[in-house]
Structure formats: C-alpha cells, structure tokens
Design a protein that fits this description.
By secondary structure, the protein is α+β, with helices and mostly antiparallel strands. It has one domain: Ribosomal Protein S5, domain 2. It is built from four helices and five strands; from the N terminus they run ββββααβαα. β1 and β2 form a beta hairpin. About 30% of the residues are buried.
C-alpha cells in the first residue's frame, strides 16, 4: 500500500455521531459512506452544513471521502462539518481564524441525558395521585 502524503485527515463528533474525513486535491467530489453527498443527505440544509467550511475557506478543488456512523442525519452533518474544519486546518494553519470565528472548530458537548430509575424518562416523573 502506497502512502499518500497529500491526504489530510479530520475527525469530528456531535452527540453520538462520529465522522472521519480523508481530504486530497481533486475535482470536488464528495463521497459519504460510499454514496454521493446528495444521495446520503437528502435535505438541502444538511448539505449546506457539510459544505459550509469549504465555502468559508474558498476551497473547491478537493475530493472528500467521508465515513460517518452513529446518531441521526442532523448530528452526522454537524459531525462532518467539524471533521472537515479540522482537516482544512491541518492542511493549512492560516484557515484556523476563519473557521474559529464561525464556530466550526468547537465540539458541541450536548448529549442526551440518561434515563433515571424510578421514573419513565430523564426528567419526567410517574403520575402522582394524592387520593
């Protein structure tokens, strides 16, 4: 196996979604889990979230191979944005300030709260009857 030194790798997370990106010079082809970007993310907003770091940095000549797993499509799209931002910074450190200003390099720490025993959900309580 030949090592390609022109590849930048980035990892991003959101809730339970984890995305890994392999970025190299190319024609702008984006593949997510073996599918085209438009086929994997059906909503235009999700595709816009994924492509936003490229638009901020004015980069169009890169091919992206994305592996993403866990969570739903919304969380996956934000995880991909996080991973892509990290890969862009790894390729060129000058992009850090642009991406940091937009908040793309910040990991969103919010996660689902666990269910507690003695109640039906994380916060909800069983119905209480006084009489």
């Amino acid at each position: 196996m030949k090592k390609n030194v022109n590849i930048s790798i980035g990892t991003g997370r959101r809730k339970t979604a984890v995305a890994r990106i392999y970025m190299r010079k190319g024609a702008g082809v984006i593949t997510v889990n073996g599918k085209d970007l438009d086929a994997y993310f059906p909503l235009p907003l999700q595709r816009k979230v994924v492509k936003s770091p490229l638009e901020v940095c004015n980069v169009a000549d890169v091919d992206l191979v994305i592996n993403v797993q866990g969570g739903g499509l919304e969380g996956q799209s934000v995880a991909v944005r996080h991973a892509l931002s990290r890969a862009l910074v790894k390729a060129d450190e000058d992009r850090r300030s642009l991406l940091k200003e937009k908040g793309f390099l910040t990991r969103d720490p919010r996660k689902r709260e666990r269910k507690k025993y003695g109640q039906p959900g994380a916060r909800k309580k069983f119905q209480f009857c006084k009489r």
